[in-house]
User: What shape does this take?
Amino acid sequence: MDTPEREKRSIPSIDPAAAGGEGITRRAFIHRSLVAGAALGAASQALFPLISTLDVAYGAQEFRFAWISDTHLYPKTLNTRFVEKAERAVNDVKAMKPAPDFLIFGGDLAQLGDPVELQLGADILKNLSLKKYFIPGEHDWYLDMGATWEKLFGKQPWSFDHKGVRFIGLDTVSRGPDYWSAKKMTPAERMGHMATLDGSVAGPWAGVGADQLQWLAKTLSNWPKDKPVILFSHNPLYEYYPPWNFWVRDWRDVQEVLRPYTKVTNIHGHTHQVLYNEIGTMRSIGMLATSWNWPYPPQGVPALTVPMVRVDPGDHFDGVGWGKLTMTAKERVDYQYMMWRKDVFSQTQVDSGTGDNMNQILSPRFADRP
Amino acid sequence: MKKGWIYAVIVCSVSLGIGLLGAGIGGAHKVKHTPEQLKAFEDVFMEQVKIGDLLFHGDAATEKKLGTKLSRTGMACAMCHPFAVDTHPYEFPKFQEQINKFSTLRDMINWCIEKPNEGEILGADSDAMKALEAYIYWSNRGSKLDPGRH
Assistant: This one.
C-alpha cells in the first residue's frame, strides 16, 4: 500500500489533537496504518498480516528480513505443540517471495535451557538455508550459563552493516545478578526461577551491562548520526511492567548511548504480544512468540501500542506467529505481524487484549519467597 | 398415650438441639474476635492461597502431595496467567464461550486443565480445586465484581 492510499484511510479512534488538525502526524500515521494494513492484509493473504510503517531513513535499495523468536521448545517427548508452531514459522519464512535477506532469531529458543531443547531448535532452524543471526533469551541461558547456546549459535553482541543500515544484536539476558550461589541452587533450580515470569526470586535480571554499553558506544561511534540503526534485543529497551521482569534495568543508560542517533529502531521479543513504543528518537517494536501469547499486564502498556485482540485459549495457534520486516526504498520499514488468525489488532473495547482487563487489580505472588 | 409421650420427647429434644445450635452460632458473633482468632482465620485462608499458588505455578512436590496432574504439556497455569492475570474470577458465573454453557470459575479452571494443559480435571469440591480458587481470588482481590461480563 503506498502512502497516498494509506492517508485516505482513517479510523475514528484517532485523537484529532494527536493528528494536529493539519494532516497526519507520524504518530497518527502509524496508528492509522495499523488498521488500514489489516484490511489490506485480509484481502490479499491467507495469513492476514497487519502492516505498519516506520519511516526509518536509509539511502539504499529495498530489502526484507524475517523475525522468529520465543519458540520455548521442550523436548519433543513432552510437548509437540511448540515444535509444530516453530516449524510452521520456519516454513512460512521459507515460502517468502522474494526471500528475505536474513533471519533474526530473537531468543528463547528453548524452554528450560536443556541442550536437547536447544539442539531441537537448531535442527528446526537448519531447514532455513538463508543467513541467520541469533540473540539469546533467558530460557536459553540459565541452565548452563550459555555454554550450549554459544556452542551452537556463537557469541553476542554482534554488529554488521547491510544495505545502508547498521544492525546490532545485543545480549540482554546473561548479566543477571547472582541469586543462586548463596542459596546453593542446582542449575535446574536456577533455570526454574528464571523461567517463571512472575517469580520474585530472580529479581530484575535483564540488563545490557556497563561492558556492553561501552561496546555499543564504540560500535556506533563511526556510524553517521542520521543513518539508520536497528538493534535486536530479547527484552524491550525501556521500562515495561517490572513485576514481570519485562524491562532492561539499565534502559536509561542504553538510551543515553543512543540519544545522538536519530533513526534508531529496536526490535525485541520476550513479551509475546503486539507492542509498540517510542522512547526519545528510538522506536520499539515488540514481536510475537510462536509458542504462546501473554495477556497485557494490568498497567504500563505503552500509550502508542494498538492492542492486539483477545485470543482463543482453545486454539494453540492463536495469538502467536512471526514477523516480516521490509526496509523500503522510500526510507521506511514496514513491519507485519504474521499472526495465524484473521484479525490481529482489536477494533473495539470488547475484543481488546487490554480492554479485557479493565476491571482487574492484581497482587504479586508470594509462595516463592523465603 | 404412649405415642403421645414419645412425640413430646422428640419435640423437646429437637427444640433443645436447635436452641443449643443457635446459641453456639450466636455466640460466635457475640464475643469480640481477638487478634489471635483473626490471625488464625487468615492463616487458614492464606495456607490455601499458598497451596494454590504452588499448584498454579506447576510445583511438582505440591502436585504429588495432592495427587493431581494439572498438565501434560510442561505448561503451568501461571505461564499464561502470571499473577493470575486474565483469569477474571470476578466475572463468574457467566456464559463461557469455550465451554458453551453457563459456567463457574471452577468449570473454567477444569477447562484449562483439560484442554490447553491436557491434564486431569479436578473434582469440583476437591482440595486442589479450592486451593486454586483461593489463589486466583486472592491474586485478583480488589478487582471490581462484574459477574456475567464476557
